[in-house]
Design a protein that fits this description.
The complex is a heterotrimer of chains A (319), B (512) and C (287). By secondary structure, chain A is an alpha/beta fold. Chain A is 47% helix and 10% strand. The chains are: A alpha/beta (319), B alpha/beta (512), C alpha/beta (287).
Chain lengths: 319, 512, 287
């Protein structure tokens, strides 16, 4: 079959179509690895005690995108997840529900069925050929339209890392823009898969492109690649969000995902958000944790704070 | 910043995308570092450490009452409360200490094989590590330094200095090719109040490793931890007289410098005092090394990794309340990024936590002493009088104690006093430059030459600038890093001689 | 009728030129037997001031010259010295009254010493510099670099050998020097300067003042643009005055009067370290 002839660009010429040059010239700053890791380590050294700890842990619960992304996911497993998200622990702890559940496209309709139409818990779905993104744009967009149609409030897309690393930033940009359009009213989280971008410079640049292309959130990882979220990588992304805010007035959200398993880790992330972007980002609207096992460790710590004794995992329901 | 809006036009498809976010108007684009989630107090425990009501001199391996019979109070600068009493040593005490050091030098220490000397230093290093938390707490109480710094910076480096130099004790011949190094004899050391224990380690460890004996005097306001270190020497069974600690005042130090049987003087402190000491030893054969003041330039180029550069600027000037001789107190920013840097600095200082030094979340502790606080105030006022704009965070200072908020001044020129004089406090003077040549010229335009910083992502530029800066330590894309293997010391009026590294050994050896 | 000799007046050597003293003063050099040899310039404090300016100007270029290039130039100076050894031997012999055999010994040793030090220009950084294994993720290295402008005071004798032994380790690293020559026997030093002027050594790298040390010493000590003093004069009283200069601007002072300028110890590379500063540079290691 003959390839279709290239469509002529219409009346408006696009002068900077080659993003490789254009974006590099934007002055996206470089990142010094050693210093950014040093700064990141400083956040982990904050001592979070008593009332601060309890407030932070409750905030972490509310920021959780409770996640199941397995080949063996079933409607039954999704039901567990949804219930846990709605009521993470005993009512006596007076906890908020989690921000969202995060599931594969085929599970969205079951989640919607379980949560109903007016749930405080959002439904997020990974889409766009998760986790690799190595699929045709057409099928990716089709997926996006499907999950939104099935009731997803949030779309967690993956970027085309291949395109980014090959220098085709325009392709990455256009796919995000197209996905944003296809998402309609759903919020778009753009997963950079920082473990595959490897350098902080790449993370910073990819964050910038994602935000310009229409991301509502930028997200570190799929959870399928090691390393997933780290504090320094998240810091680099938060700094990109900060500069984007100053430049455009738009507050983009941040979602570290993968590898955050303990309450202590979660608190360090919150410290970082507080000290990098300030109070306006200390809300589930702008900060999320993508995690499957984090929530119960956070709950155990909350129970310890409230009840005063060390907890055991048997007393907390599995998602 | 405006270039980023250009990027929106990057792709034709962007036009179709509606972000769906409220756009905050330019004037309201501020970060809000409020108390939505504030940190509860997290004080380090200090009550479990017993502080004796009175501390004597440490001479010839024993704690000895001072000849004067007098003691003076040492206070906690964060509370102005008395901590304990410290012995006031005088010339008589110094003389006894020097005699003890001479005896120890001749009878024991200079004769001891290097390997054995090294083992004492290793032993001391270990005990310091074991007692690190206690020493950190005492250092914080006595000096006002935040516990996170004494715990994570001072004490680890103190131990590292003893470890590093312990290893040199039996390897000195490899440090000086073609020559045989010999110890100098009795070394008189005078250290400042900004890093009391750390400076003691910088001075004592190489002196002992090279086979010298020591008479050391701490600053009047920060004697406590050095006296504790003397207890560690006892515990390590260091032979008596090898290290003698004479606490006291300025005259006590003078007595050490003037003592005829002291072979070498090592001083860290102000350039003014350094010059006086240099004058005192004229006509003698005493050797001297001086680590003095500084007014370091921290140069930020437009191609710097900007957010890390901001961290470097912060670390450069607000580390240890700016009581750092190598503090990056003159910020030279390339004009093209000046507004951006100032905006980021404004935000960043708002997140610095000032208050109880014993609180583990405190970034900025107390100013070490009242005269210093007054000097800082006076110099900042001079900056304001000369037309600079003062930028400080919104913060509440404790009512008692000596405090100064993290501050920077914009609109500073090279002719402002705040651009020339060492403030030795948490005060940064921000200036601009246009070209690399100008940056270097301005950086070098000072009688000092201790340190400098340079921030750029371009390797070749770093080497060029590093090469041209007249400073003993140049931090490129980092700042205020210290390591026992890395020599430290200044050019010009920042003193002479190096401490640390193989080069630092030269100050404590003569070469046969 | 006997031909009348042409008498020469020895001048100062400043910034590559041979000025008379701005003061117009002269002194007479006499042989040990009291015979008048020649006149030489009696440098004033203003001549010293001019020499510092010339030396400061020269630091820029000399310090930037590659180590290899400085080595070549110093070796070239040794070549010139060798070529005109006879002249120097004669100068030493008539000035000091030693036999020409002894004078020759001094001259040849001075030449060899210059050759020796010429070889250090591209080696001392390697021997005395270091890469420091710091515990953090930083590349950290220390290199010696020239301190700037140094004043060198030569002893009375051996007038040539001591001067060469003192000045070579100063200038080889890239410093420039103002040399105060032997007061008693200035002519060999002045001749040495004339030879340097015909070598490739840039003007201002070595500047030579003849005259009375004691007159110059207070101005040397107090000068704010002098970085170091290397004092080989061996005068205790003057040494103390020079040392007091440390207290003025922290200029480095080293008393390097040697017991025996003919011994190998007068050739030691550690003297290079007197007029260098160790610079330590840190840089992160990361991607």
């Amino acid at each position: 079959m003959k390839a279709p002839a290239l469509k002529k660009v219409g009346a408006t010429p696009v002068p900077f179509r080659d993003s490789r040059l254009a974006i590099r010239n934007l002055g996206v700053p470089t990142v010094d690895a050693v210093m950014v890791e040093e700064r990141a380590a400083a956040f982990t050294k904050r001592s979070i005690k008593t009332s601060t700890k309890l407030a932070g842990l409750k905030m972490a619960v509310a920021m959780c995108d409770l996640t199941t992304l397995e080949g063996k996911d079933t409607p039954g497993k999704v039901a567990y997840l949804c219930r846990k998200a709605l009521a993470p622990a005993d009512p006596k702890y007076n906890l908020p529900s989690c921000a969202a559940v995060c599931v594969y496209p085929n599970m969205v309709k079951y989640a919607r069925k379980f949560l109903g139409d007016h749930s405080p818990v959002h439904i997020a779905s990974v889409a766009t050929g998760f986790p690799s993104g190595q699929y045709p744009l057409r099928t990716k967009l089709e997926e996006v339209r499907r999950v939104v149609g099935d009731g997803a409030d949030e779309v967690d897309m993956v970027i085309d890392r291949g395109a980014f690393l090959a220098g085709d930033h325009a392709k990455m940009f256009d796919e995000i823009a197209a996905t944003k359009q296809a998402s309609g009213p759903a919020h778009l989280k753009v997963i950079l898969e920082t473990g595959e971008l490897v350098t902080y410079d790449n993370v910073r640049l990819a964050s910038e492109i994602a935000m310009q292309a229409g991301a509502d959130f930028i997200k570190t990882s799929t959870g399928k690649v090691n390393p997933a979220a780290t504090i320094p990588v998240t810091l680099v992304m938060l700094e990109a969000i900060r500069d984007y805010f100053f430049a455009t007035g738009i507050r983009i959200g941040m979602k570290p995902a993968g590898g955050i398993r303990t309450a202590k880790q979660a608190l360090a992330y919150l410290v970082m958000v507080k000290e990098t972007l300030g109070d306006d980002w200390l809300t589930p609207d702008r900060f999320r944790f993508g995690a499957s096992t984090l929530v119960n460790d956070v709950l155990m710590q909350i129970a310890k704070q409230v009840d005063g004794n060390y907890q055991g995992p048997d007393y907390f329901s599995l998602p | 910043m405006k270039t980023k809006t250009k990027a929106v036009k990057l792709s034709a498809k962007r036009a179709m995308v509606t972000p769906g976010h409220p756009v905050v108007p330019l004037k309201d684009r501020r970060l809000n570092f409020g108390d939505k989630w504030d940190y509860a107090p997290a004080p380090e425990d200090f009550k479990s450490y017993v502080i004796a009501p009175r501390h004597d001199l440490f001479i010839n391996g024993k704690f000895t009452a001072p000849h004067s019979g007098k003691h003076f109070d040492t206070i906690n600068p964060a509370t102005e409360e008395k901590i304990t009493e410290i012995a006031l040593g005088d010339a008589e005490d110094v003389d006894i200490a020097v005699k003890a050091a001479r005896r120890a030098y001749e009878k024991v220490w200079s004769k001891m094989p290097g390997r054995e000397r090294g083992k004492y230093l290793y032993r001391i290093a270990r005990i310091i590590q074991e007692k690190a938390r206690e020493l950190a707490v005492l250092e914080t109480m006595d000096g006002g330094k935040p516990i996170k710094e004494t715990r994570d910076v001072d004490l680890p480096i103190v131990a590292a200095h003893f470890f590093y130099h312990a290893g040199w004790a039996d390897k000195l011949q490899y440090a000086f090719p073609g020559r045989t190094p010999r110890p100098l004899g009795v070394v008189g050391q005078i250290i400042p109040w900004n890093f009391p224990l750390l400076m003691a380690a910088w001075k004592i460890a190489p002196a002992l490793a090279c086979g010298n004996t020591v008479v050391i005097k701490p600053s009047k306001t920060t004697s406590l931890t050095l006296v504790r270190l003397a207890q560690i020497f006892q515990e390590a069974e260091l032979p008596e007289g090898v290290v003698n600690v004479i606490t006291g005042v300025g005259e006590t130090g003078t007595a050490i410098v003037k003592h005829p049987d002291v072979n070498k003087i090592a001083f860290t402190g102000s350039t003014e005092i350094g010059k006086q000491l240099a004058q005192m030893i004229v006509g003698t054969d005493k050797r001297i090394t001086l680590e003095l003041g500084g007014k370091a330039a921290n140069i930020v180029f437009e191609d710097a990794p900007i957010d890390q550069a901001i961290e470097g600027i912060i670390a450069g000037i607000y580390f240890n309340m700016g009581h750092v001789c190598c503090a990056g107190s003159r910020l030279l920013v390339q004009e093209s990024i000046y507004p951006k840097v100032v905006k980021k600095l404004r935000d960043r200082i708002q997140t610095l936590r000032i208050g109880n030094p014993l609180d583990k979340n405190t970034d900025i502790g107390a100013i070490n002493n009242k005269p210093q606080l007054e000097k800082i105030r006076e110099l900042v006022q001079s900056g304001a009088d000369e037309g600079a704009e003062i930028v400080q965070p919104v913060c509440q200072l404790p009512e008692r104690g000596y405090w100064y908020p993290p501050t920077f001044l914009t609109g500073v020129t090279a002719s402002h006093r705040v651009a020339q004089e060492e403030i030795f406090g948490p005060v940064l003077s921000v200036m601009t430059f246009r070209t690399p040549e100008e940056a270097v010229e301005r950086a070098n335009n000072t009688p000092y030459g201790l340190s400098a910083g340079v921030w750029t992502d371009k390797g070749s530029k770093i080497f060029k600038i590093v090469n041209q800066l007249r400073a003993g330590v140049v931090w490129a894309n980092t700042y205020n890093k210290f390591d026992p293997t890395s020599p430290f010391g200044g050019y010009k009026e920042s003193g002479f001689g190096r401490e640390g590294g193989v080069q630092g050994l030269a100050a404590y050896c003569r070469l046969d | 009728m006997n031909r009348l000799d042409v008498k020469k007046t020895y001048k100062l050597y400043i910034g590559g030129k041979f000025p008379r003293s701005e003061s117009g003063r002269y002194l007479a050099a006499k042989s040990p037997a009291g015979q008048h040899l020649d006149n030489f310039a009696h440098a004033s404090r203003k001549d010293f001031r001019d020499a510092v300016v010339a030396a400061r100007v020269a630091v820029e270029g000399w310090g930037k010259a590659s180590a290899y290039n400085r080595g070549q130039i110093l070796y070239r100076a040794a070549e010139m010295l060798q070529n005109r050894a006879g002249e120097l031997v004669n100068e030493i012999a008539r000035s000091t009254g030693v036999t020409s055999v002894k004078a020759k010994r001094e001259v040849t040793l001075a030449i060899d010493r210059l050759v020796h030090f010429a070889g250090w220009t591209d080696k001392y950084q390697q021997v005395f510099g270091s890469v420091n294994p710091v515990a953090s993720s930083h590349f950290d290295f220390t290199t010696p670099e020239p301190t700037g402008v140094a004043v060198v005071l030569a002893p009375d004798e051996p007038a040539l050998l001591a001067l060469v032994s003192l000045v070579a380790p100063v200038v080889l690293s890239g410093n420039t020097a103002i040399v105060v020559a032997s007061e008693k026997f200035p002519l060999p030093a002045a001749t040495f300067a004339e030879i340097l002027a015909t070598s490739d050594l840039p003007g201002g790298v070595v500047n030579l003042l003849t005259g009375k040390r004691a007159e110059l010493v207070p101005h040397i000590a107090s000068h704010m643009d002098v970085n170091a003093i290397v004092d080989g004069a061996g005068d205790r009283e003057l040494a103390a005055k020079l040392q007091a200069g440390v207290a003025i601007n922290l200029k480095r002072y080293f008393n390097r009067a040697a017991a025996d300028w003919f011994s190998a110890r007068a050739e030691e590379p550690y003297r290079i370290l007197d007029t260098v500063e160790f610079k330590t540079a840190w840089h992160p290691i990361g991607v």
